[in-house]
Records
---
Amino acid sequence: MFEYAPAPESRSVVEIAPSYGLFIDGEFTSPAEGGTFKTVNPASEEVLAEVASAGSDDVDRAVAAARRAFGPWSALPGAERAKYLFRIARIIQERSRELAVLESLDNGKPIKESRDVDLPLVAAHFFYYAGWADKLAYAGFGPDPRPLGVAGQVIPWNFPLLMLAWKVAPALATGNTVVLKPAETTPLSALFFADVCRQADLPPGVVNIVTGAGDTGAYLVQHPDVNKVAFTGSTEVGRQIARSVAGTGKRLTLELGGKAANIVFDDAPIDQAVEGIVTGIFFNQGHVCCAGSRLLVQESVAEELLSSLKRRMATLRVGDPLDKNTDVGAINSAVQLARITELSEIGAAEGAERWSPACDLPDRGFWFAPTIFTGVTQAHRIAREEIFGPVLSVLTFRTPAEAVEKANNTPYGLSAGIWTEKGSRILAVADKLRAGVVWANTFNKFDPASPFGGYKESGYGREGGRHGLEAYLA
Amino acid sequence: MTATTPLGLSDLRSFLRGLPGVDKVGVESRAAALATRSVKASAKATAIDLAIRMVDLTTLEGADTPGKVRALCAKGMRPDPADPGCPPVAAICVYPAMVPVAAAALAGSGVRLASVATAFPSGQAPLEVKLADTRAAVAAGADEIDMVISRGAFLAGDYDRVFAEIVAVKEACGGAHLKVILETGELATYDNVRRASWLAMLAGADFIKTSTGKVAVNATLPITLVMLEAVRDFRERYGRQVGVKPAGGIRTTKDAIKYLVVINETAGDDWLDPDWFRFGASSLLNDLLMQRTKLTTGHYAGPDYFTLD
């Protein structure tokens, strides 16, 4: 075997402060009540920094700062707002190496993903929405669409900076101001972004970042002076948020969980389908709401496909997220690892056959080997519940109609994949799938111009593209 | 004529058409992803020596003379005269007319002698001429024959003819190893590359080779990836291992290492060996030597510190 020597990206390219305050009104400030929490590197359990925990007074201050900034910011001509967004995009590109390392340290994702996927997409989102800022009158939402006011945004830990970009870029382009709460386990890239805002001379208060756990998020979404709530995360929390904003007149978009079907027909390009399955479920350790976590494979090619898949999985390199050759990094937290472990044990107990390639997992940190379950049926919990980890459930089908039926038989509807060399089948099946995104002969491809969002329990509203503007305009 | 192989295949056309398709976007993105592997330090040193041992050092010019060929052979046997630890290349590859010269120069060295044949590079000659070309090269001492397929016949859908030609050339080779050049740049699609690979293997090829080096598009990483998948799947199905040789356009160490990574993560270990993988190249060797010296000494030496081919 041709062993690659370790090729670690240098962690010294980015400076991490021992502690961080809240970014309110253009300044880092201490929280009123003085609480802090620690953020750790999930690959080593080493503490990276202490981060302030925002209480309700802090959220008040942040919302008030955003409110003050809203008037002048929304009064700026679109072309002027665009200049700030273009500047932010360029700074992100210039500092992308720092940000990529920081993201991998705090999140556990492999550096090749933060470097080649997350950061380029983050910059692309800011560039894309910068382009819309002076063209809102032509976006199809009336001749003079108006911003909503203060947007309270709560984002998850799986793509910390990318989810920030999805939220912040359209909000600012449309003239809203923002209070954003990053996830408790991954606050560092958002705090770095605060510095990017200052570097771009963004007026104080336009972007405010309050760190903390669920309580902080609850204060934010329930704050009476917030006009718009945008949330990406679990369906369970999404439900609570929907309840809490019901009847308040706040606008709401939710981007929640998923249990996507990746459907492989017998006439698929097998080698590329295997790559797509791997990308679909092992990209970002499976911490992807649109992950292809249910493989539906036509029974006539199931055996061949699975043997190819297993062979391919044996080449996955699990380990140090900062090593440039790592394919699968660390699970983001002990809590998430426990959930993945629990659901996997349930899968085995319910009679599905579990398989993982031989791989050495590091002693410290949170790790889970890439895993597939075969012999899964619609009745298994691992076929119904979102695992949010590197665990694939394999089901089979006999006919296209059965594939569609099984794919749609889920409370979720975020994404789906179709693999076939037959163009007419792609169109026919895509038309019947109830999922916000349907990929054909590819998977987990993102572009700022393409809207993203779900059906059913996967949420409502769309982010990205022209559609993504609508959520921030009246 | 219906092709009947030792494998009991009776309908070549429907077999080849029944192979799974290749998705262009997918295979190119997979190759691009593998090309980002970072191979450093000890892994790089191992890779460079392996790549040197895999080089088919080639000269295929109208202007080739005995003097040029002898110089090339000397270079192939001792690529770095200053370092006895530097391995020799796998083979020297020349036109049939130059085989006697090369055979004399390489005698006893362990470096193999390959010759193109079968009306290289176009293949547009009658079968008898191709066979005579092959026999002459083998008789003059070639250990390996690099034949070209009739792309015209393949593109016209006359798979049986291509198959029969390969079978005939293989027979004419006797004990010499047969490398079958698909000229993938002229086959144009990945689906065709996969079909031609299977066709050549079914007909008895010992190696499948991408290109002559004489057309606009020669070896590329995704094409080689498709061919490596083909040899992997062929062995799984029929139990016979076939080698792969990308040729043309591979000029740098960086490129060569990308190919080694693709072998490593596609066909696997068994192909990481000069018996099963070759680079058809000329200028690649000096870049490998330059990087090898850099790794040992820590600094780059100028081009005059490496010998001319």
---
Amino acid sequence: MSNPYAKLPGWVEYGLVPLVNLAVAFLVAGLVVLLVGENPFEAAYHLINGAFGRGEYIGFTLYYATTFIFTGLAVAVAFHAGLFNIGGEGQAYVGGIGVALACLWLDQTMPWFVVFPLAIIGSAAFGAVWAFLPGWLQAKRGSHIVITTIMFNFIASSLMVYLLTKVLKPLGSMAPQTRTFAEGGQLPKLDWLLAIFGLDIGTAPFNISFLLALVAAFGVWLLIWRTKLGYEMRTMGHSPSAARYAGMSESRITVITMMISGALAGMMALNPIMGEQGRMQLDFVQGAGFVGIAVALMGRSHPAGIIPAAVLFGVLYQGGAEISFEMPSISRDMIVIIQGLVILFAGALENMFRPAITRLFSISSRRAAVVAQTKGA
Amino acid sequence: MDSIAIELRGIDKSFGLVHANKNINLKVRKGTIHGVIGENGAGKSTLMSILYGFYQADSGEIHVDGKQVSIRDPNAAIAAGIGMVHQHFMLVENFTVLENVMLGAEESRILNKGIAKARVELKRLEREYALEVNPDAVIEELPVGLQQRVEILKALYRRADILILDEPTGVLTPAEADHLFRVLEQLKSQGKTIILITHKLREIMAITDEVSVMRRGEMVATRTTAETSVEELAELMVGRRVLLRVEKGEAKPGDVKLSVDGLTVKDSRGVTMVDNVSFNLRAGEIVGIAGVAGNGQSELLEAISGIRRAVSGDVLLNGKAIDVTGHADPKELRDRGLAHVPEDRHHVGLVLKFEESENAILGYHHDKRYLNGVFLNVDAIRKDAEQKIAEYDIRPPNARLKTANFSGGNQQKIVLAREMERGPDVLIIGQPTRGVDVGAIEFIHKRIIEMRDQGKAVLLVSVELDEIRALSDRILVMFAGRVVGERDPDATEGELGLLMAGVEGRKEAAE
């Protein structure tokens, strides 16, 4: 009785409520487009067409989605233990070092399937180290993780500028980036996957790290719901006092969770570095770490929700780019506004429509119960 | 005396699928004390929240003094002359009594005028109702009984004619409770109407004129108190006959299982909460720790079970030391045969968002039979949970239901099943029946006695003196962090009450 929101059927809870939120977000975004003096239906057409209109567009959409799956999972894992890791951006950035080192070392002598596993380990290790420090600082020194992970984003940014201008840059080059990797440092595209559906990938960088992202999503599900560690993480996330009572070590779980979270964020670097650019550039993360927060919120921190949420943000990124291309008066910032609205309605105002929907369902289910009773009698 | 102060007609309220109040009718006569009893979740709090404007009824009418009123929020309730004394006080701890009383009723932007007026009014109320309290005392320095008095003054200051008191004696010593009842009698004689919500049958019998019983959202009966009995009320509450007294045989104490020597515990602010406490707990006996909430019992339990660090003291479990000042770890203590049913099952003993089966292994999740390597053996966990559900009659019998959806009594059974099932040598239990319905209380008490009869050592902490007296073989009384006396279970309530208030204890310590 203390919970005024009664339990809703699963498809309403995880299907209808997010859809209503999303619809409202697009409705408001449409109004903004209208205010700019453009036709919102035209914008919507370009958004959808830009994301799904051609095999190439779909490839781009899924390429972005791959990135967001990794960062979304990173945030979600930490959420489950009650930790708010805002440092996905920095962890992904630093994770890039692991990818770059593996590629620079072996790309000329080894095929991609030898370099790839090493790059995975490298990216995860560097990302984990970057998350370990804030985790350890919270566990042992009580420095709040939200503050430290934000600060570590800035440190990561400065560190990478230093590395890419002084250390990893080839001699004589003016660009702050590593040399372009040889074939061994580039991931194969998933053109065959799209070809199954009769789609042509074109120039889209949709690559094999997408499959790794799906494996990671399954791994996160296993970790959270099927391992002892996941059980301890969830206990701590829901109730730190219950975790203490059960004899779980808060500092141990904090540190381990942050390292797993950081490793997932770090693995995001595989996608742009090995999958698209074939080199590590300055600012290759491009805010994906922050988008991960929105993805995790929208996906309810569940892998099965994070994948569609990541695809949605992939659509916004790819389709949004098309809008600004086709409709010059809508700048890319407009896309940021739409993304912001999605985050606002799906994340922050998530419960806005829930009471109304709950009421609707309690009325209809009570009616159904009455009908069943009269039939029974 | 015949006029009706409050009448509820056909009040109906649902939260989603939960039908909390079903067509409730209630008449409260002016100038009487009217009790409302019912088990947890019977809907009494919902009903009173509707009356006080926290919730809106889905349908039904509220009449005050014969006129229909619409109570949309607490302000409307106050305007209609209804005041509420909440179970958890709504006071600003670092404000004075005067500031708290006038909070929200300042009447002017400039405080000075309001303060002067409030001071005069407070004086008048004190005189009229014999509710003395220093208006300049800071709330956090007042004892709980006086804080409650401030809550009552707050309601009276807002000219309440009808006072609703929600479980008012939960935090009081017996003496303070008696004092409260005298205040209520006084208010009644001045023509105020009082609605007393409680689950304590004895209080109903002691003070009310009429009593209404709620069960599962329905108002099942209204009785004149003088014409009913505790047994009848209990039966009305539960819907079947209940055994109010616990049957138990002689204790056969054996070896010392837990020995506590000079245990001292401080809280995070450095205040001494447990002060040099020593006692022994033997196999086959139940030692009860009586005391008003907040006198160090919680900290004592936490220190022994390894959740909180002690400052000094020695604790031996089965003759071997527990490192209470250093590395005592709940996991290690569980392995060594100490089980702990914590006082706060909502935040400590259970994770409410977990499935029942997940809570059934909390703290024992290292056990090999629940694991396949690093993975959880979900089948084994669920099967194990189903066994416990059957054995402890946990309802609904669904191991996959979210724990929050079980009633208080069934939640407590989940914890008890988990902690008792392994047959620990020492069982420490805090508030075994807090927020638990009468039917489940009977079951839980029986299980505790069974544990004792199997030769287990049981340490019981409860703020319900009746429970302590019914279950314990020896009673220790705690006051201000110290054990101020040991008594037999047949000690009178008055004797224990004085100890709990620290009166007797000081004398004893001085001697």
